[in-house]
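hey
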């Protein structure tokens, strides 16, 4: 496995590759990331090249967010990539990624302002800008992202479509611990009691999922109830929202492909999670 730190070295290394699978990350790799690497490899094949980028992107963090304390574990991460059969790790530093202030940015449409975007203004502008730069640097045929960041997947999918980027996006299912907690680099911030409580976030989503499957269609009542339940348990929820999978807009009662998304703070740690709920249309008779 090669580890490269500059765009020039990356381009030189990839020059002769005819098929490239790409997994962009911010490092602090866990089993969820390893699964993305496995999916990339499966899609491009044993002879092709799998690239993982590791870069904590300042542009997508708000001024009061955890950019400074975000875990940086490059040596361990590279070892995990090597074990996962990755061919190239691209680990630029900030001066390589942003050699001058990034004056040109990608401004996503309205979807950037809802849900996560309402709480983290500018977040998706930072995400799509760095992902576009990474796509230009790596020029992958396939790129893999986790559905844990559901809104990010939608925003990136739209960008790839609207800019006709020659890359196929694969969206991977969320990897969870046995108790349901979605894997996240931020789980490491949780104190032991918070870690015990953390699976209650997905429990709230699953309760909504069950109610939807049972025929409940009062979306606002379901959201409000889950919000209140989390609050009563000591969480500070930002949102619990039932949306359409395709565009994350509020659903009509007849919509069947839904996703329930939530973000909430437990102690000082902010967790996000989501659950796709696809309801079978009732039979005609
Ligand atoms: O999902 C992430 O880890 C980041 O948002 C990404 C896509 C690597 C861009 O910095």
């Amino acid at each position: 496995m090669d580890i490269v730190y500059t765009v020039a070295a990356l381009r030189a290394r990839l020059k002769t590759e005819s098929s490239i699978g790409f997994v962009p990350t911010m490092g602090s790799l866990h089993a969820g990331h390893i699964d993305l690497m496995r999916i990339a490899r499966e899609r491009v094949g044993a002879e092709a090249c799998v690239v993982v980028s590791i870069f904590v992107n300042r542009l997508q963090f708000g001024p009061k967010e955890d950019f400074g304390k975000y875990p940086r574990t490059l040596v361990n991460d590279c070892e995990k990539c090597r074990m996962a059969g990755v061919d190239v790790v691209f680990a630029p530093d900030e001066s390589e990624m942003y050699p001058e202030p990034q004056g040109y940015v990608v401004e996503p449409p309205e979807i950037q302002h809802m849900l996560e975007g309402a709480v983290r203004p500018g977040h998706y502008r930072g995400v799509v800008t760095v992902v576009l730069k990474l796509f230009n640097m790596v020029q992958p045929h396939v790129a893999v992202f986790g559905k844990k960041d559901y809104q990010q997947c939608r925003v990136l999918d739209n960008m790839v479509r609207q800019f006709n980027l020659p890359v196929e996006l694969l969206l991977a299912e969320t990897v969870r611990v046995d108790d349901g907690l979605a894997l996240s680099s931020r789980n490491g911030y949780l104190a032991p009691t918070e870690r015990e409580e953390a699976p209650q976030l997905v429990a709230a989503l699953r309760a909504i999922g069950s109610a939807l499957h049972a025929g409940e269609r009062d979306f606002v009542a379901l959201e409000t109830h889950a919000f209140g339940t989390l609050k009563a348990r000591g969480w500070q929820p930002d949102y619990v929202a039932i949306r359409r999978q395709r565009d994350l807009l509020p659903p009509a009662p007849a919509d069947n492909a839904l996703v329930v998304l939530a973000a909430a703070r437990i102690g000082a740690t902010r967790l996000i999670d989501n659950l796709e709920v696809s309801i079978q249309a009732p039979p005609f008779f």
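The beta strands are 2-4, 20-25, 49-54, 88-90, 142-146, 168-172, 236-244, 257-266, 269-278. Residues 185-276 form a domain with the Pantoate--beta-alanine Ligase; Chain: A,domain 2 fold (CATH 3.30.1300.10).
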